[in-house]
Amino acid sequence: MAGLFIKAFAPGVGTAEAADRLAEALAKTGRAIHSRQWRHGAGPSSGAGPWRFSWRVIRATARGGTALTLQDGPAESWDLDFFRALSSVVDGVVVGMDLYDLLSRQGLASFFAGRTMEVSLEDAGLPRIALGAPPPHLLLGGASLESVYEERFGNFCNSVGSLLYVGEVLEEGHWEVAPPATDYVRETLPTESLLVLANVEASDWSAVAGRLAPGGRWRAGLTPSLKTSFVELRHPGVFDEARVIAISKALACPVSAIELVSGGSPFQWVEANQGDLESSGVGTTGMDFFNTLGRAVFFLGEGPGLVFGRGAGGWHEIPR
């Protein structure tokens, strides 16, 4: 059956910020919002459209946590530039899918904090795109695109994948939005390191931050359902393994470090606990990255999508 589905989800985004962050990401990619309807608006509204753009904030798990889901309007193809911009604005995970007529086109793409983790697309008559992932017929492994998309949601939220479609709707919007105005170009961003310090209070980290991570930036957080404290640290360049071990020893805590690359490139990761190096490795695909991100938040008891997605604010700069 013919159909066009361009969808995306962003775990961790709540009702207080969803509309503003969507508007910011659309503005970053040159897509004007012509009109807005809220809460189950029905039928086309007046404006310079129509370009239907629907979004919802849903409850992502039975315990707590939220996620933003969206469906873009009719298009020749998905707006990867917008998906990437949204991941930058929410400073977290965005996963998008593009499905047209089951056979003509199918694609899956994932982003984290403005960086491309994977793009996998097959479009009839055009070259395949396999960036940080194999082409869809290999990536999906015989499963349907929508089932894999739903599975990703469940994995990122430590939840039931079907909640992506049947979860409680907390807020909803139906907008008319200008069509895509920019083309996706693989980004080249400076390498940065992401460190997750599990079960650490802000006061404990701030007392040692200047000594252990000069030149970095950090912010404290609480997981949405278990209210477990953690510190997120970003540092320029590839992480220093000795620094990771020193932090875990000084605070007697688990520390995971992941190299944030761009354009689906390979990356390094390392894990330490109580001053001991426990494991390390190299990832080559987007799924490798998200599996590593899941390991990084293991001690927090939440899915990686719900730990991040808090927006780009709240950072404390550490003097050199």
TrEMBL record:
Full protein name: Uncharacterized protein
Domain of life of the organism encoding this protein: Bacteria
Organism: Corallococcus coralloides (strain ATCC 25202 / DSM 2259 / NBRC 100086 / M2) (Myxococcus coralloides)
